[in-house]
Each structure stands twice: as C-alpha cells, then as structure tokens.
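REQUEST FORM: STRUCTURE PREDICTION
Request ID: SP-0412
Submitted by: Lab K.M.
Chain count: 1
Length (residues): 89
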Amino acid sequence: MSNPELRLQIKRLMVENLMLQITAEEIADDILMFGPGGLGLDSVDALQLVVALDKNFGLKISDAEAAKGILQNVNTIAAAIQQKAQAAR
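STATUS: Completed
RESULT:
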C-alpha cells in the first residue's frame, strides 16, 4: 500500500471511529491530534483510535509513552504502521 493511500485510510478510520464532523480529505497529514490548534481529540478518542488501529492494521500501542509518539498526527501513525509491516517481513 502506498503512503498516500495509507494516510487516507487512516483519516477515514478516524472520521468513522471518532465521529469527527469533518471529512477525511479535510484532515491534514501533519495536523496535531490533541490540544488547541489541532483536531482537539481527548483521552477517550485516543483509546478508540488505539483500538481501531489495532483492529484494522494490527498496530499494538502498549503504553502511554509509545502512544505520545505515535498519535501525534496522521504522518506519525502511518510511519508506525509501515515500520510494523517492515518488521514483520
């Protein structure tokens, strides 16, 4: 799967699972997930996103420190998924 396809798939997953009021196409690859100036997600959203990423991509995020690095934006999530896929080869 190409990187642009993967990022779009992640955005669609976010819109569906987090019930965002925007479309996948409106989410920038580098927009922050949490806090002001970003998507404004909260801890409940983070938990739902972690579950959805595991279910759809097999990406297991085991602790809060790992989650902070991975769940920054769409690019960091895509990088983690690609890294996991390469490690599985």
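NOTES: The chain has one domain: 3-87.
Reviewed by: T.R.
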